[in-house]
Amino acid sequence: MMFASPLVRYRYSFADQSTSADSIQQLNWSSEFNGIITKLNDLGVETKVRCAQSDTLPQALLDNPIGLHFSGHGYPNTPQEVGDLRPHVSRGREGQSCLVFETEDGEAQFITEDQLRD
């Protein structure tokens, strides 16, 4: 199981050459996970919980899980949602959905469908 609940997302606007910071609604992932963990433990299934970061997803997949549950936010890959520069987003198709992981500093890191496939 992986969670991400970054505190802030930064967006840059070419129009006025400014950066804005928006707080992101915090999720109650621990309550959600406790219910899932309890049920899986009752079935004898081992569980691991990790913060969803760009380097922890590949590590989680190397464990060869029977399932992966993600608790977090998602946005469309558009300038309105992730900013004009989209520094954490691959230059893939605009409008492609992004999951929001978090950096070690608590900032939003947008991960596209293409990045997840890679």
Present the secondary structure layout.
Blueprint: E1 2-3, E2 8-13, E3 18-23, H1 29-42, E4 50-51, H2 56-62, E5 70-71, E6 73-76, H3 79-82, E7 97-102, E8 108-112, H4 113-117
Parallel strand pairs: 1-4, 1-5
Antiparallel strand pairs: 2-3, 6-7, 7-8
Written account of the structure:
- With 118 residues, the chain is α/β, with parallel strands linked by helices.
- Helices cover 25% and strands 28% of the residues.
- The strands form 3 sheets. A 3-stranded parallel β-sheet has the order 4-1-5, covered by helices on one side. Strands 6-7-8 form a 3-stranded antiparallel β-sheet. A two-stranded antiparallel sheet has the order 2-3.
- Strand 7 and strand 8 (108-112) form a beta hairpin.
- The mean pLDDT is 80.
What is the string of SSEs from the N terminus onward? EEEHEHEEHEEH
Provide mean pLDDT, rounded. Answer: 80
Approximate shape: elongated
Give the number of domains: 1
Radius of gyration: 16 Å
Task: Let me know the largest β-sheet.
Answer: 3 strands, parallel
Q: Termini separation (Å)?
A: 20 Å
Q: Decide which structural class fits the backbone.
A: alpha/beta
Tally of individual helices:
4
Number of strands: 8
Low-confidence stretches: none
Strands side by side in the biggest sheet: 4-1-5
